[in-house]
Amino acid sequence: MRFLKKILMGLVVALVVIQFIPQQKNIAAGVSANNIAAVYTTPEEVKTILASSCNDCHSNNTTYPWYNNIQPVGFWLAHHVNEGKEKLNFDEFADYSPWKQYHKLEETEEMLTEAEMPLSSYTFIHKNAALNKGQEQVLIDWTKSIRKQMEATYTIDSLIRPKKNS
Q1: Residue 65 burial by Cβ neighbours in a 10 Å radius (0-12, 13-18, 19+)
Q2: What's this model's pTM, rounded to 2 decimal places?
Q3: Distance CA 111, CA 122 (A)
Q4: Is residue 9 part of a domain?
Q5: Residue 146 is assigned to a structural domain of this protein
Q6: CA 111 to CA 117: how far, in whole Å?
Q7: Is the dihedral of CA 61, 52, 49, 107 positive or negative?
Q8: In the predicted model, is pLDDT for residue 166 greater than 70?
């Protein structure tokens, strides 16, 4: 019984100590010059949908819930946001190569079509982030229109994945 008590006491101490480990937050000073809206037409309706359903994980500006300050939840959320930004960051979109932009838009359409985004673990807590069919279609149509614009602007070779040098 004493051994179990020591383990529990150690866990409590560890939980208290990790509360004081600082974590960097994903909060930008303003809208990035590389934001997708800086290079592609982004209707207000799309901006609204992105703000409510996508930007917390796919931009340089996350709105954090109160429970982000409780560890280890905060560490998990930071990892989740960093992973989302790694996959797609709307605030860095203009900095992507034409191929990467085109590919990310294809992936976005696929994720929306298959109802994989926003993640159910996110919409479970953020009910307003869940997309209805109409909102999904607005985003799909928007990604298609940008890709069509790109197809008219770039050669097909620049939109095909570049081969790696051997």
Answers
A1: middle
A2: 0.82
A3: 15
A4: no
A5: yes
A6: 6
A7: positive
A8: no
Query: How many domains does one find in the chain?
Result: 1
- What does the H/E/C string look like for 78-93? HHHHHHHHHHCCCCCH
Number of helices (H), then strands (E), in the chain: 9, 0
How confident is the model at residue 66, as a pLDDT? 87
Q: Which residue has the tokens 């190569």?
A: 97
Contact between 150 and 98 (Cβ < 8 Å): yes
Comparing CA positions, the residue from 159, 139, 143, 161 lying closest to residue 151 is 159
Q: Is residue 19 part of a domain?
A: no
Q: How far apart are CA 120 and CA 127, in angstroms?
A: 10
E strand or H helix at 160, and its extent?
A: none
Lookup result for tokens 């703000």: 51
30-71 pLDDT per residue, tens: 778 999 999 999 999 999 999 999 999 999 999 888 888 888
The pLDDT mean for the chain works out to 88
Q: Which domain holds residue 34?
A: 25-159
